[in-house]
Amino acid sequence: MTEVRVPTLGESVTEATVATWFKKPGDRVEADEMLCELETDKVTVEVPSPAAGTLAEIVANEGDTVGVDALLANISESGEAAAPAAPAAKSEAPAEAPAASGGSSVDVMVPTLGESVTEATVSTWFKKVGDTVAQDEMLCELETDKVSVEVPSPAAGTLTEILFDEGSTVEAGGKLGVIASGDGAAAAAPASAPAAAPAASSSTGKDVEHAPAAKKAMAEAGLSADQVQGSGRDGRIMKEDVAKAAAAAAAATSAAPAPAAAPRGPVNADDASREERVKMTRLRQTIARRLKDAQNTAAMLTTYNEVDMTEVMAIRNQYKDAFEKKHGVRMGFMSFFTKACVHALKEVPEVNAEIDGNEVVYKNYVHMGIAAGTPQGLVVPVLRDVDQKSFAEIEKEIGEKGRRARDGKLSMAEMQGGSFTISNGGVYGSLMSSPILNPPQSGILGMHKIQDRPMAINGKVEIRPMMYLALSYDHRIVDGKGAVTFLVRVKEALEDPRRLLMDI
Fold it and tell me: pLDDT, tens digit, for every residue of 232-246?
């Protein structure tokens, strides 16, 4: 008998509600097949079967509250009598075909996608049905809201089945395809190809039980199920889906639609023939949604200043060779700006805080988000506890996170938990801009291009390397005085870096 227990639910989360059981006692289950779905305050967690066998007993029913590591069910591994029922499970029967041909088969599964990420889009298949693959060779690439995930082959053999084509949405823990090894591998490929159709349609026509918390939220918001787009399994409506629908309804009634939301006007046939339509990636959709949410939620305002980069550039030129020789990393400007922001946040802590309901959460740490442009879009890796790190440690981590961001190798955990963000538009030549907040943060600093300009210095005109700085902030929590003070402290620290040593 194998026990099915509640997995780890996340930091500080100790209990969950059993939302839906996908199996009932007596059903045959395979290893890693989804048994049930748990719902916490923030995320939905799917519980896979730890072993193949028969679901003998369900201990925690739908609607029950369970703690971490609590017993959910028992699986009988000796219940071989249930094997004849396997053909009734339409999506499972094709998986046995390669074995009948004298070879063995291995399922290609969707890997863990990150905390609170339940689905991804198949962006690219590097192999096609019938191709021979080596163990750990890359089969396909998945794209989530933030990162790209490569799926390696779990075994050497022949790719005999692809269940989801490029552009399809897959769930965490779901099956992507089948690898067959042995003499019957090649013969199994044609037989397994049609299996994708029943697998894709096996969930259609099914009565979907929406999450209990979602039902309650819909009742409170006065919404019906047909007004909410479900993002859970089989279109199941989750609590966060209701929140999005309610926010969209409120925005629609409180303001006129923005020009960007208006339907596209008529296009003549000649122009239309020269256009190309490309579906937005999940990352781009998420960027668009989060940026618009920031504008709709925060009372966002931007204040500007300029900084003379003479002293920072002089220090960099004087010590860059010795710095790189000792620490193995080049000295850039980002470590100076990071340290200057840490210095300013000590004096103006509300810029490092966030609003939670009717409370302000002040953070006695600085987790710095560094916005980075990638071929896939903008991502913001987070450097944790930068207030405790040296210039060299900051430069090393910025370089390492930047490379992994460009390669799409960042995990979700590495892009969560930031308390303040720096965005450097200067690397693209931007002279002035107003950065948008990264919710739920209350401040973001925009750096820009360093440009020589004539400045009045002690009654004389001198040419100095100047940079415009922009601080966007949430006026609900940060007053104008605090925002200006923060930007002035950053300016002072950069124009006289000795202040950082003296902490003044």
Answer: 656 777 767 777 887
Q: Where are the beta strands (DSSP E) in 144-212?
A: 148-152, 157-162, 169-171, 175-181
pLDDT digits (tens, 9 = 90+) for 410-468: 877 788 889 999 999 888 899 999 999 988 899 999 999 999 999 999 999 999 999 99
Q: Is 452 a catalytic residue?
A: no
How far is residue 9's CA from residue 184's CA, in Å, rounded to a whole number?
A: 42
Active-site hit among 387, 479, 496, 503: 479
Q: Write out the two tokens for 451.
A: 């440009």
Q: How far apart are CA 172 and CA 111, in angstroms?
A: 6
Confirm whether 210 is a catalytic residue.
no
3-state secondary structure of 149: strand
Indicate the SS3 state at residue 205.
coil
* Sequence-separated (6 or more) residues with CB below 8 Å from residue 89: 28
Classify domain 284-502 by CATH number: 3.30.559.10
C-alpha separations of 67 from 7, 47, 212, 240, 458 in Å: 9, 14, 17, 22, 68
Q: Which two tokens stand for residue 489?
A: 């402290």
What pLDDT, on the 0 to 100 scale, is given for residue 87?
39
Name the region of 385 (left: φ>0; alpha: ψ -120 to 50; beta: rest): left
The Cα–Cα gap between 66 and 82 comes to 29
Using CB atoms within 10 A of its CB, is residue 31 exposed (0-12), middle (13-18) or buried (19+)?
middle
CA angle 330, 334, 340 (to 5 degrees): 130
Distance, CA of 445 to CA of 366 (rounded, Å): 14
Q: What is the 3-state secondary structure (H, E, C) of 323-346?
A: HHHHHCCCCCCHHHHHHHHHHHHH
In the chain, list all ranges with CATH 2.40.50.100: 1-89, 90-198
Residue 32 in contact with residue 173, Cβ under 8 Å?
Answer: yes
Helix (H, G, I), strand (E, B) or coil at 195: helix
High-pLDDT (> 70) share of the chain, % = 79
- Contacts with 19 (C-beta within 8 Å, 6 or more apart), sequence order: 36, 37, 38, 39, 44, 62, 211, 212, 213
The active-site residue out of 41, 327, 475, 503 is 475
Amino acid present at 280: M
Query: What residue spans in the chain does CATH classification 3.30.559.10 cover?
Result: 284-502
CATH 2.40.50.100 fits 90-198, yes or no: yes
The CATH class for the domain spanning 1-89 reads: mainly beta
Residue 189 burial class via C-beta count within 10 angstroms: exposed 0-12, middle 13-18, buried 19 and up: buried
